[in-house]
What we know:
The complex is a heterotrimer of chains A (267), B (260) and C (163).
Chain A: E1 3-14, E2 17-28, E3 32-36, H1 43-50, E4 58-63, E5 66-67, H2 73-80, E6 83-86, H3 98-109, H4 114-127, H5 143-154, E7 161-165, H6 173-189, E8 193-198, H7 201-207, E9 210-215, E10 218-223, H8 225-229, H9 234-241, H10 257-262
Parallel strand pairs in A: 3-8, 3-9, 6-7, 7-8
Antiparallel strand pairs in A: 1-2, 1-4, 4-5, 9-10
Chain B: H1 2-30, H2 36-50, H3 55-79, H4 86-124, H5 127-133, H6 138-176, H7 181-191, H8 194-221, H9 227-257
Chain C: H1 4-29, E1 40-47, E2 58-61, E3 64-74, E4 81-88, E5 99-104, E6 111-116, E7 129-130, E8 132-134, H2 139-151
Parallel strand pairs in C: 1-7, 2-6, 5-8
Antiparallel strand pairs in C: 1-4, 2-3, 3-4, 5-6
Amino acid sequence: MDNIVEINKLAFLRNQRVIFNDVDLDIPKGKVTAIMGPSGTGKTTLLRLMGGQLIPAKGSIKVAGQEVPRLNRRALYQLRKRIGMLFQTGGLFTHLTVFENVAFPLREHTSLSNAMIRSLVLMKLEMVGLRGARDLMPSELSGGMARRVALARAIALDPDLIMYDEPFSGQDPISMGVLVKLIRTLNDALKLTTVIVSHDVQETLSISDQAYVISNGRIIGQGTAHSIRNDPSPSLQQFLQGLPDGPVPFHYPGKSLAHDLMSEDLT
Amino acid sequence: MINQVAALGRIGLEVVRQYGKAGIILYRAIFRVPDIRKGFSLVVQQIYAEGVLSLLIIIVSALFIGMVVALQGYHTLSKFGASQQLGPLVALSVARELGPVVTALLFAGRAGSALAAEIGLMKATDQLSSMEMMAVDPLQRVIAPRFWGGFISMPLLTIIFNMVAIYGAYLVGVKWLGMDAGAFWSNMQSAVDFRLDILNGIYKSVVFGVVVTWIALYQGYDAVPTSAGIANATTRTVVYSSLAVLGLDFVLTAMMIGGW
Amino acid sequence: MLSQRVIETTVGLFLLAALLALITLAFKVSGLTTFFKQEGYNITAAFDDIGQLKVRGSVKIGGVTIGEVTDITIDPVSYRAVVTMRISSAVSDIPNDSSASILTAGLLGDNYIAITPMYSKEFLKNGSEIQETHSAMILEKLIGQFLFSIGHPGEKSTEGVKE
């Protein structure tokens, strides 16, 4: 089983804060891989590193065998045409219709005729169930619909790898169900490799072949959904079960309550 | 005490870094081989958004400014018995200073702030990132057309401002205050030199166009991607642009009066 | 968003409006038609004092502008100011014994060169020099003359504008 993405000994800092420290990660081809962890651990940053939008401080990031941080502009852009990315906010172009949004990558990177582009766009929209909404403007779409349109746009060029940044956040149960089904179906039908970054444990694990859990810049758990659920590590279990107190404490660090109540300070 | 000095140094370095970032963005946006077919229609769209849509405020302001300068000028000149010099007074003030500067300030307020807000919003809603991940350079697709739009619109707006302002002065001076039309225009013609006054004013407007558009685009591109960040970017655009225009106006005027 | 066609038409109109404004500014406001400097010929004249005359000052015959001053230098031998003028080719029959004076436009205006044509049948060509020149009136000298004549009635002062 070869890997489409290989990350070795990754280290990344932002404003002197260590985001990643010695992280090893492999994304196998054709499978759905989840990357999970508490908010703020830098999961989105990881996607940006894989997409070449950020450069790591140390370590190597290989996508499709190419060392991403070392690519020049042209090679990087060539690589990006094979990657689809779905941002948390959708990232639809507000001045274009749904149809034009999905058609955008086709118009930019191919010289297909208008008729061909139309067919392709309609097919992609059909896959996400929004062919009828093709003339709407993004401002007229609900959040879930906007995300599906962004998904259609992400697969417009038939990429090899698709990355989802928090696809389930803020969705009502029906939209959630739709997206969950879509992600898995598309992965299998189009022979994609999927990476899902999320902190919605149940939904994500239900469709993932394997998962990584990252906390404090390190991987605290990896493996299949089943093996992770049964991993006894306390920080992992706190995250997976959503326990309010554990290795990540409930109380923000400070002096004891007795001390604060008894002290003479007015603050 | 040392802390204050260190803080000052840090601020200074940060300012220099901002200039550097702005310069790099401008360089990457405009010094690339452009795609003439696609790029042209994008630039035309931006000339519309920045130039044509600013016409209303430019024309109305020009009319009123021309009328006020004529009104004030006439009354002051009359005290010296020089009311026949109203034409030259208005034409020279407008062509050399009021035209380029006021147009630039109005442009900064209307088009500059709109640009900064638009780009800041595109950044905050991940539109720029999406474009990047789809292997389309947002600097080429989004920033560059807006830069050329501003570069072309500003001198055109200034020329129209000049004309409307002088017409406004004509309305007040000749039609209302009863000056002789012939004296108005002929005195103006002998006092105004095309190269020194009108063309110099247009050169100024080109410089202002570059500066205002550049500041607006950079502030939007570099904005913190939150609503507060966008609001800050918009305010900063207007403030910095205005200061830059006024400062550069002084420098350019000094250069022009000294004969370049 | 308006259709592409409408946008392009409006931008075209905008450009046209600006072009029209520019043309109006050029001709009606700055009187550009008076002199296109392309064809012309150069003549020189030496003055004792050019007063406020500047390069690009007008050269007129009978009040009509026929050229402009292109250069002002000082002759190292005679210490007179040598003024070079470019005259429009359309005016090619100025007699070569004409005189050149430096006058003031209006009371507080700029100085210009007025050429008064004489009677010779030979005309000024490229490189000719006008021999008879009258320098600018210097206000201070005039006042000095006037005061002198008041203080010493009947006498002629030895100062004054040289002829």
